[in-house]
Amino acid sequence: DLLSTFHANDAATAIPRLVDMGIEPFLLASTLEAVLAQRLVRRICENCKVSVQLSTADVKKYYPDMYKAFTGSKVTLYKGKGCEVCHHSGYRGRIAITEFIRVTPEMEALMLEKPSTQEIWKLAREQGSHSLFEDGIAKSQAGLTTPEEVLRVASPSERQ
User: Fold this and answer.
1) pLDDT band at residue 158 under the 50/70/90 scheme
2) Looking at the whole model, is its pTM more than 0.90?
3) What's the pLDDT tens digit per position in 1-57?
4) High-pLDDT (> 70) share of the chain, %
5) Which of 31, 86, 91, 132 has the smallest CB count inside 10 Å?
6) Long-range pairs of 22-26 with CB within 8 A, sequence gap ≥ 24
7) Cβ atoms of residues 51 and 76 within 8 Å
C-alpha cells in the first residue's frame, strides 16, 4: 500500500492530472483505490460557541453564495464570541473539509477512457460523493466551523 499527497484543486481533477503526468490510464485504473481532497478551516472555539438562528431571508442576505444549500424556514448556525481560550478570535484549532472519490469498477472503466474532470465528478456524484463546499456546509450546520470559513476555502460553484 502507498499513501501519497498530490496537489490538485479537487479530487476529480487529480485523475486527469496524473494521466497528464504520464501515468497510463490502465495502470492508474488498476492501482488507484481512492482520491481525497481536503482543505483546512478554522474550528469554532468550544469554550465560547453560540448558536445563531437565521431566517432563510437573512441567510440569503448574509450568505448569498450559500443560501441554496440550506433548507427550512430557520437555519441554525454557530460562531465563537471570543474568549481567553481562543485569544478572542472565536476559533481554536482546525478541521478538514473533504471530498472523497472511491475508485469503483465503474470508475476504473471510465478512467480507461481518459475522462474529463466533469465526467469523473458526474460518476462520483452518482456514487455518493459530495463536494468540498457541501462538506463545509454540513460542518457549519453541525457547529464545527462557520460559513465564513467555508466560503474562504471552498467556492460555492464547486459542484453544488
Assistant:
1) low
2) no
3) 667 788 888 999 999 999 999 999 999 999 999 999 999 999 999 999 999 999 888
4) 96
5) 31
6) 25/111, 25/112, 25/113, 25/114, 26/112
7) yes
Dist CA 122 CA 105 (whole Å):
15
User: Backbone phi, then psi, for 44, in 5-degree steps?
Assistant: -65, 135
DSSP class per residue in the chain? --------SSHHHHHHHHHHTT--HHHHHHH--EEEEEEEEEEEPTTTEEEEEEEHHHHHHH-TTTGGG--SSEEEEEEE---TTTTTSSEEEEEEEEEEEE--HHHHHHHTT---HHHHHHHHHHTT---HHHHHHHHHHTTSS-HHHHHHHS-TTS--
Q: Report residue 114 as a C-alpha cell.
A: 481518459
d(CA 53, CA 40): 25
Q: Establish how many alpha carbons lie within 13 A of residue 130's alpha carbon, considering only the half-sphere containing its beta carbon.
A: 11
Look at the block and give the residue holding cell 465503474: 106
